[in-house]
Specification:
The structure is a single chain. With 346 residues, the protein is an alpha/beta fold. Helix content is 40%, strand content 19%. Helix 8 links the parallel strand 6 and strand 7. The two termini are 34 Å apart.
Length: 346
């Protein structure tokens, strides 16, 4: 915990003085002489009747003052808060190797089922968009709060040749930031216009955004799942740098073999290898995280873990109201107990 106005913490030095003042008042009362009609009344006057209860209200009031004085210094702390607005882009590999059956029933179906369960578990206010990528990338569902539309889009996946992981990231960014002028013709397979570099405005050739700290954009995130290494399209690390400049975290999920094996299905075979190093570097550059899923159950657990962290954020927040509320509560409790036990506040 830190404080916006730490110099005001010196006010806490008044608390020991108040304790000394309270002890001095008690001692003075014991020394005072009062003519009373009975010994019992005399004992009450000397403070021996109520016993320990007489000290409870003052102690509560002292704690209330301590909390209020901390509130004056404006304390801050890093706490977990729910996000008021969130958009999640699912970038999913639909290359031919996703037919492989090393993940049951096969990689594509396992990824679809895990993604659909993930979408259903998200709060209704979270918007979800879907990008599929193989040799090129396509937005199969624009960000929406309709879970039925997202699930239907995931069910419509069509397998293609090639693996362009960088295209999946770039198209996801272009969907999140339509006003940034991100050039997408070369990642969607459409005709590209020469002389327009990635990330530049298509009209004046100037960046239309100000780079921010990696991982600082809390309103959106990209989850990318792939089972192979890039075979075409832009460099995924260049795409990751674009995401980092916009503060967007990219969470990468790898499935399949990491050693490089020949996988056969439907009478033909192909060699595939998961490029874990690149996926880890993408997550590092964007302050995201990398997950490996070797089975359908692993993949389900990965998405369950992601669903819990996609809707909250940890941030430095002023918690003055907590201390102020605590101080007020203790003060009211001290006054209430004093009235109940002794019939007076003081």
């Amino acid at each position: 915990m830190s404080f916006e106005w730490p110099h005001l913490l010196w006010l806490q030095a008044a608390l020991p003085l108040l304790v000394l003042l309270y002890l001095w008042i008690l001692k003075r009362r014991r020394r005072s002489t009062v003519r009373l009609a009975s010994v019992q009344v005399a004992r009450l006057a000397m403070g021996k009747g109520p016993g320990w209860r007489r000290h409870v209200p003052p102690l509560l009031m002292l704690a209330a003052l301590a909390a209020l004085l901390l509130a004056v210094a404006r304390p801050t702390a890093t706490i977990t808060l729910p996000l008021a607005e969130r958009t999640i882009m699912l970038a999913m590999d639909v290359s031919g190797s996703m037919r492989a059956e090393d993940v049951k029933p096969n990689r594509l179906v396992a990824s679809q089922e895990a993604a659909k369960a993930f979408v259903k578990a998200l709060p209704r206010e979270v918007r979800v968009g879907v990008v599929s990528f193989a040799g090129t990338a396509a937005v199969v569902q624009a960000p929406t709060t309709s879970r039925d539309d997202v699930i239907a889009a995931i069910d419509r996946f069509q397998l293609q040749r090639g693996t362009a992981t960088g295209s999946g990231i770039i198209l996801s960014l272009a969907t999140l930031f339509p006003d940034h002028g991100i050039e997408i013709q070369h990642v969607t397979g459409q005709r590209n216009f020469p002389g327009k570099p990635i990330g530049k405005d298509s009209r004046d050739d100037k960046p239309r955004f100000t780079p921010v700290l990696p991982g600082s954009y809390a309103s959106a995130a990209i989850i990318m799942l792939t089972d192979g290494q890039r075979t075409t399209g832009p460099d995924p690390l260049d795409a990751a740098k674009m995401a980092a400049e916009r503060g967007v975290r990219v969470y990468t999920v790898g499935m399949g073999t990491t050693s490089g094996e020949i996988i056969g299905f439907e009478g033909w075979s192909m060699r595939v290898r998961l490029d874990e190093e690149t996926l880890k570097n993408i997550s590092v550059l964007t302050h995201g995280e990398y997950f490996y899923a070797g089975t359908a159950e692993d993949l389900k657990k990965v998405y369950e873990s992601l669903s819990s962290r996609m809707v909250v954020e940890r941030k430095e927040t002023e918690i003055t109201a907590i201390f102020a509320g605590l101080g007020a509560l203790l003060a009211v409790l001290a006054a209430g107990l004093s009235l109940w036990w002794f019939g007076r506040v003081a």
